[in-house]
Each structure stands twice: as structure tokens, then as C-alpha cells.
Design goal:
By secondary structure, the chain is an alpha/beta fold. The protein folds into 3 domains: 52 residues, 434 Repressor (Amino-terminal Domain), CATH 1.10.260; 135 residues, Response regulator (Rossmann fold, 3-Layer(aba) Sandwich); 142 residues, Rossmann fold (3-Layer(aba) Sandwich). 41% of the residues lie in helices and 17% in strands. A 6-stranded parallel beta sheet has the order 2-1-3-4-5-11, covered by helices on one side. A 6-stranded mixed beta sheet has the order 7-6-8-9-10-12, sandwiched between helices. Helix 3 packs parallel to helix 4 and helix 4 packs across helix 13. The longest helix is centred in the first third of the chain and has 22 residues. The protein is globular and about 65 Å long.
Length: 340
């Protein structure tokens, strides 16, 4: 694998810049970070192949997840996986799949035909064909944000969604918010189900009710917010938790379109800490997932499973990144006569 110095020489930048790019430092641009990661993965493969044949062949399958630029959730997950795999002399193929692809060839057949020793699946939901075929899989497979109990050849890597939601609810209630709205993504997503359950549980822990009329779901994209924000405001919401930064960005845009201010009129919280979060106006308070660490952990889990060690679940701690999209509620801001 190429050294940091070799990557720095290729790019004409300092060793410290390359180190920051590889380690996700926040004091270099997103464009430079992507350039460093792309170059590291490219040079890793070049050097490895010059030395030796790969010991193992692994595949990453991606559905319903942006991954081709650093602004997409999947980019750093896959980068972390590929860089860790290169250190173990593994060859990695990245395959984008859709419904047609899954109907055309079974997951098990695809992996056997290409001689893959293990797989990492990203972006799938519980109704996808490949997840329904999981009983046929006899090759170690790591699932991002999906858990299928009773299948010893699969394991689940993700961020602790319960802990992440607790961080958000605790923070908003500490600011005085009582009418807290919730905007999620796909209803049949394993991770969305867990986040919704955690939201309701921690609202109860604070003596609050998760009002069904203040909860909504849709696609994991900015447009989802447009459908719900007006009703949330009419029903007295003072804060909205969005289960992705993309939905949160749509919420902020829609609130501005309605003539409202963030956070003065409505506090907004996201989830993921994508690069977009720090550049929104105002910068978004959000739950950070360490995406490169998720990729590295997925590789470590595959290595253990291939070696015969059964692993079920690995959850990473989230971190609440407090920025400028939330503010404290003073009593007179609550709807007149409202009692929680």
C-alpha cells in the first residue's frame, strides 16, 4: 500500500494535509479530503497489485445511497472499508444495484460466480429482494444498518440509534422544548424503525408524548419536509428532529420559504453530520456518525467471520454536534393554554 508521503508527493501537498484527509479532519476542504481519499484508494491498489495477488476478494453492494462524492453518506463508509481492506491485501469491487439487478441474479449466485469471500451491503431496506434471500447466503456478509437475527453468516454494523436519539431529545428538552416534531425517512427501513421507537421512548422518559400528528415520514431527501412543516407549526411544534441532514436541509429551506426563522421560530436537528450540515444557514446541529469508522469496522467484522468467529452486532457511539440551528424556548413561546 502507498505511504502517506507517496500520496503527498502525487498530489503536491504536505504530509499533514494527507493525514488530515485520511483521518477526517475538519480544517481542510471537503474537495481536498475527497481528493486525498480517492488518491489513497487508487494508489493502494496500484502498489498492492505490483507486489502481490490479492488474498481475498470482497464486494460492496450499494442501493438507495449516494456514494460517488464525499457529500453522499456512503462515500466515506466505502472509503474506510477499502482503505482497511487494502492494508489486508484484499481486492474490493463496488457494485451499484437496483430492483432490476436483484431480480436478474440472486445475491448468493452473484457472490459465488465472482469468487467473493465476503460482502458488505449498504442502503438496503427490509423489503429488498437481496435481504429476503439472506437464508441462501453462505458467504460472510456485513449489513449496514440492518439486522437479521438467526442468520449466522450475516452481521450488523451501525451507529447506536437509540443513543443518538437520546442525545437529541435530552438536548432539546434541556432547551425547554416540549412540542417536538419528528421527520423520518422510509417507513420500512430498519434504522428508521429503531429511531422512531427511540424517539417515542425518550419522549416518555421526559414525561412527554410523541404526538402522532407531529410525526411524518417519506423519502430521505429535502422535499420530504414540505409535506409536513406547515401542519407541525399549526399544531404548536417548536422543534423538529429530522433523521437525516438532507431532510433537515429541506426543513430549513421550507421554513424560510414560509417566512419563519431558524432557530428563532423553529429549532431543527439533523442526523449523520454530512458535509452539508456545517454549510447550511444556520449551521445544523446534528448527530454525527463516524462513517469511515463504520467502513473499517465492517472490514474487521468480515475478517473475523471469514476466520470462523461468529459476530452479530457492532454499534458505534454517536456524537451530538451542536451548532446554531437550535435555541432555548422561553415560556411565552409555547401555545397559549398548552399543557403537555
Amino acid at each position: 500500500m502507498a505511504t502517506i508521503k507517496e500520496i503527498a508527493d502525487r498530489l503536491g501537498v504536505s504530509i499533514s494535509t494527507v493525514s488530515k484527509g485520511l483521518n477526517g479532519a475538519s480544517d481542510i476542504s471537503e474537495e481536498m479530503r475527497q481528493t486525498v481519499l480517492d488518491t489513497a484508494m487508487e494508489m493502494g491498489y496500484i502498489h498492492r497489485r505490483k507486489k502481490d495477488a490479492a488474498l481475498r476478494r470482497l464486494c460492496v453492494m450499494v442501493e438507495n445511497m449516494a456514494y460517488e462524492s464525499i457529500h453522499g453518506f456512503g462515500y466515506e463508509v466505502i472509503a474506510g472499508f477499502r482503505l482497511a481492506a487494502a492494508k489486508q491485501n484484499c481486492e474490493v469491487s463496488v457494485i451499484a444495484v437496483d430492483d432490476f439487478f436483484q431480480q436478474k441474479q440472486s445475491c448468493s449466485s452473484l457472490m459465488r460466480q465472482n469468487g467473493y469471500d465476503g460482502a458488505f451491503l449498504l442502503g438496503f431496506d427490509l423489503n429488498d429482494t437481496y435481504l429476503k434471500q439472506i437464508e441462501e447466503i453462505s458467504i460472510p456478509t456485513v449489513l449496514l444498518d440492518n439486522y437479521l437475527p438467526g442468520h449466522p453468516m450475516t452481521c450488523y454494523v451501525g451507529t447506536d440509534n437509540s443513543e443518538g436519539m437520546q442525545l437529541v431529545v435530552d438536548y432539546l428538552t434541556s432547551l425547554g422544548h416540549r412540542r417536538i416534531a419528528y421527520l423520518g425517512g422510509f417507513d420500512d427501513s430498519f434504522v428508521e424503525i429503531r429511531r422512531r421507537e427511540a424517539f417515542e421512548r425518550f419522549m416518555r422518559c421526559h414525561g412527554l408524548k410523541a404526538d402522532p400528528l407531529l410525526c411524518g415520514s417519506g423519502l430521505n431527501e429535502p422535499e420530504t419536509a414540505k409535506k409536513y412543516l406547515h401542519d407541525f407549526i399549526e399544531r404548536g411544534a417548536t422543534a423538529v428532529i429530522c433523521t437525516s441532514d438532507l431532510i433537515a436541509s429541506g426543513a430549513i429551506s421550507e421554513l424560510y420559504r414560509m417566512g419563519m426563522r431558524v432557530p428563532e421560530d423553529m429549532s431543527v436537528v439533523g442526523f449523520d453530520d454530512l458535509p452539508i450540515a456545517r454549510y447550511l444557514a444556520p449551521p445544523l446541529t446534528t448527530v454525527r456518525q463516524d462513517r469511515q469508522a463504520l467502513g473499517r469496522c465492517a472490514l474487521a467484522m468480515l475478517e473475523q467471520m471469514i476466520s470462523g468467529c461468529g459476530i452479530g452486532v457492532m454499534l458505534l457511539h454517536p456524537e451530538l454536534k451542536i451548532r446554531d440551528s437550535c435555541k432555548a424556548v422561553i415560556p411565552q413561546e409555547l401555545p397559549e393554554g398548552y399543557v403537555h
